[in-house]
Amino acid sequence: MEYQATYITPEIKLSEYHGKLFKTEAAFDNHLLVWLISGETKMVQADQKVLFGPGDTFLIPRYLLATIINYPKDGLPHKAVAMHLSSDRLQEVYRVCDSIPKPMNTQKVIRFHKHPLLDSCLASLIPYFDIQNDFPQHIASLKINEAISILRTIDPSVDMILANFETPGKIDLVHFMEKNFMSNLPLEKFSYLTGRSLTTFKRDFGKAFDTTPQRWLTRKRLELAYHELVEKGKRPVEICYETGFENLSHFSFAFKKQFGASPSQLLGKSNH
Fold first, then answer.
1. Is the pTM higher than 0.90?
2. CATH number for the domain harbouring residue 247
3. Does any domain span residue 265?
4. Residue 142 and residue 215 share a domain
5. Pair (195, 153) in one structural domain
6. Is residue 113 part of a domain?
7. Residue 29 belongs to what domain range?
8. Which residues are bridge partners to 31 per DSSP?
9. Are the C-beta atoms of residues 12 and 140 closer than 8 Å to each other?
10. Distance from C-alpha of 68 to C-alpha of 26, rounded to nearest angstrom
């Protein structure tokens, strides 16, 4: 198999990927702590692209929208340990705190500086994947709580993110969609993240943009792809995944229908 995920528990997994790349969308209901063992991970958002390499540890806050592209590198697979930090568990942690920090919403990935406590905590999980079927649940719980405690120790500001238990409220639809149109999410997820039912989302979207969500999303992604191709000379395969398309053939078909030439044809013309 090119992609393999091994779970110690539903909250802790080891993923390994041997193909050219593996793409997914971030809009998780729980915070996700990731320790990258080998390969590279690129996080693509509207206003930034962040690259992580072997040994990096980072936190993807819940409800953060980003495209995640994982690459094998240097002959090694993309390999990472991922730990879900659920709201239920975090509420237990902060319930016994002397003072609860002021919660903060963020749409930024949090990168942690290398620290021996954090490295050793996550590295200690590796042997447990060999005994996944017999892994004691109370030990898994201890390991997650240990990781949370270490994060709070090495970066106290993380409390403001981990202690935020609010659900998405109704927000400005136009600003949100203009910022996050590259995220290839179901409309149900877009509606939830803007604090709306699906019916209300479609109604408000039609009023704001005078078209359907799918048509608008396709047009915005193609316009961005055209800019990345012509102005920046990026490769079609790179543009495809970074602008919200699922595969190169669908991207090329939609691009040619919109602009009268395939991405490779247009790139060839711009290079002359």
1. no
2. 1.10.10.60
3. yes
4. no
5. no
6. yes
7. 3-162
8. 85
9. yes
10. 7
Same domain for 106 and 33, yes or no, is yes
Q: Mean pLDDT check: name the lowest of 39-43, 76-80, 122-126, 189-193.
A: 122-126
pLDDT of residue 270: 60
Q: Tell whether 168 is covered by a domain.
A: no
Count: domains in the chain: 2
Average pLDDT over residues 101-117: 88
Nearest to 69 by CA among 123, 22, 15, 5: 22
Residue 202 backbone phi and psi in degrees, to 5: -65, -40
Q: Does residue 55 share a domain with residue 29?
A: yes
Nearest to 221 by CA among 180, 175, 173, 270: 180
Structure tokens belonging to residue 134? 């017999």
- Sheet strands (E) in the chain: 3-9, 12-17, 22-26, 31-38, 40-44, 49-52, 57-60, 66-71, 78-85, 110-112
Claim to verify: residue 40 and residue 157 sit in the same structural domain: yes
Please provide the size of the chain in residues: 272
First to last CA, the chain: 41
Residue 166: how many other CB atoms lie within 10 Å: 9
pLDDT, tens digit, 9 for 90 and up, residues 206-260: 999 999 999 999 999 999 999 999 888 888 988 999 999 988 999 999 999 999 9
CB 12 within 8 A of CB 82: yes
Burial per residue of 2-32, b for 16 or more beta-carbon CB atoms within 10 angstroms, e otherwise? eeeeeebbebbbbbbbeeebbbebbbeebbb
What are the C-alpha distances in Å from 193 to residues 22, 45, 65, 134, 168?
24, 16, 9, 37, 6
| Both tokens assigned to 211 | 């078209």
CB 266 within 8 A of CB 229: yes
Exposed/middle/buried for 113, CB within 10 Å: 0-12, 13-18, 19+?
Answer: exposed
